[in-house]
Design a protein that fits this description.
- By secondary structure, the chain is mainly beta.
- It is built from no helices and 5 strands.
- A 5-stranded antiparallel sheet has the order 1-2-3-4-5, with no helix packed on it.
């Protein structure tokens, strides 16, 4: 099929602090995120990949991050901690 392309793969930082391989599941729906999935303890977690360009000691040039879709199955396996509001 001429329209099929091999899915992209990224090494991403997940909410639990571990790096995993994320596989693209569809075409990007926005300029900022790409739908993807990761494996966590044998379960598939669906969400999206995005680039965080804020520099920290752990990643001075930024890093790719994975955020789980909160309304889908297995999403609670990967949740980012709530941010403190000023």
């Amino acid at each position: 099929m001429w329209w099929y392309s091999k899915p992209e793969k990224w090494t991403v930082l997940c909410a639990d602090g571990k790096f995993r391989t994320a596989t693209q599941t569809a075409e990007a729906d926005t300029y900022f995120t790409v739908p993807a999935r990761v494996q966590v303890r044998g379960k598939t977690v669906t969400g999206f990949v995005w680039y965080d360009n804020s520099s920290t000691a752990m990643s001075p040039s930024g890093t790719w991050k994975f955020t789980a879709n909160g309304w889908l199955r297995n999403a609670k396996m990967l949740q980012w901690p709530e941010r403190q509001r000023d």
